[in-house]
Amino acid sequence: MRRIFKNNIQLSPLHITIISTLIIIAVLTFVALISLKLYKRVDLTIKKKYSLSEQTIKVFNSINKDISAVGFFTPDHQEREKIITLLKLFSDTTKHFTFEIVNPEINPGRSHKYGKILSGMVVVESGIHWEKINKPNETSILSAILRITSEEKRIVYFLQGHGEKELDNIENSGLLRVKNILESLGYDVKPVSFLKTNGVPDDADVVVVPGPEKDFFIEDLNDMNEYLEKGGALLILVDPNNLPNLEQFCRQFGINLGKGVVVDKSKRIPGSDFLVTLVEQYSNHEITAEIDSVSIFPLSRSVNVSGIKRKEINIIPLARTDEKSWLETDLVNLFNNGISLFDELKDEKGPLTIAVAGELRNYQKEDQQYYGRLVIIGDSDFATNNYFDQGANADLFVNSVLWLNRQKNLIASRPSDQEFYPIILTESNSKLIFWLTVVIFPLIVLIAGVLVIKKVRWQS
Q1: CA 312 to chain centroid
Q2: Are 359 and 314 in contact (CB under 8 A)?
Q3: Residue 17 structural domain
Q4: Are both 242 and 359 inside the same structural domain?
Q5: pLDDT tens-digit profile, the chain (460 residues)
Q6: Do the beta carbons of residue 327 and residue 301 sit within 8 Å?
Q7: Are 58 and 82 contained in the same domain?
């Protein structure tokens, strides 16, 4: 069969097929060229599992140094494609990051500079500094980049000597996870005892008080007060312990530490009791503005803003509990008998402030202006190894340190090595699950069984 056009040009079926094929190829090539210019990658997972964290993006936006990475992978390495995708995300984020993939088995000279190299390692380099990463992922690569590009080492001291939680403790109650994360951000993390240093060390950028069990001497608090007034930064994690001197220290800033334990029976994580407080309400402060998940406080006290203060300081609440929570003051009945009932005359009704941040203002010395910063959180267990990676706990702690250290450009949701998405059940949720699983579903099965038996008997 032949087709005849007005100009009398005759095309055979073969010619028509060739022309159609060329047109399709041309269209596909045109679309491909456009897609290269207008490339847009969309991550549809709920937790943005295949996207860079906000903190990583902020770090890259703040670095003006050129960074190169070399991924050493054999073609059959199981993590090869995953790391290539990650490095590609890095390079798409900033023009200062480039990378290449090298097979260490056929290019031994390429790895000679870095010592012993095995397949699966990544080396990041900037100027004369480089660092080798044995287990590359977003967190480890970002940490290495921060270390090799950091201009100076900032020091965070963790106070010891009053029963505080220990930095190098690998048990659930320790702070090793905190230490590792802060070091990965370029901080030098050290313990300190005022008995040995005669006050706050001069090189302290931030001082953390991680859950003291014993009260402070007045002299120690005077040293901390002087440190704040000179522009220092203090993070206090205080549990529901009786610490009158520390409580008085906080009151001078218009902050009252609640004398009780926060109780919330309205929602809980399955398996936990009502003393594990779940916080979802945050203020629009720099520390908490970008936190969008729940924080978990195993045993906490309220941290209230009273308005009565002797220091010129601006206090902002950071996080609040649910309105159905309250501050339980009958601790004997609570801990001995496990009984907690709201008493309008003694207990404080929620919502309760559980964390605050403040900045000292208008303090002048020798014609210089100082702005000390202070964060107080009514629990220290949330930062321990057992809870640090759960929910938004790590973000709350790390963002507090970054804000205290005036590193606003790094405050964001950080990359997480361990994903924990707690299931939060309200009272109505718990009742619904109980009725569905214990009553309704078994009842339906029972009724269906009875009907089947009756039908069989009737047919027989």
Answers
A1: 31
A2: yes
A3: 3-37
A4: yes
A5: 444 445 555 667 777 788 888 888 888 887 777 665 555 565 545 555 667 777 788 788 878 889 999 999 999 999 899 999 899 988 888 888 999 999 988 888 887 888 888 889 999 998 888 888 888 988 888 888 888 887 777 899 999 999 999 998 999 989 999 999 898 888 899 999 987 888 899 899 999 999 999 999 999 999 999 899 888 999 999 999 999 999 999 998 889 999 999 998 887 777 677 888 899 999 999 999 888 889 999 999 999 888 666 667 888 999 999 888 999 888 888 887 777 888 888 888 989 999 999 988 755 555 666 688 999 999 999 999 999 988 889 999 999 999 999 887 777 666 655 555 556 555 666 677 777 787 788 888 888 888 888 777 787 6
A6: yes
A7: yes
Whether residues 90 and 169 share a domain: the answer is no
Residues 386 and 445 in one domain: no
Same domain, 75 and 106: yes
C-beta separation of 196 from 409 below 8 A:
no
Buried/exposed 179-207: b ≥16 CB within 10 Å, e otherwise: bebbebbbbebebbebeeeeebeeebbbb
* Amino acid in position 127: G
* 176 shares its domain with 208: yes
Six-digit token pair at 173?
A: 């109650």
Q: Are residues 227 and 320 in the same domain?
A: yes
In terms of Cα–Cα distance, which of 404, 421, 420, 403 is closest to 412?
403
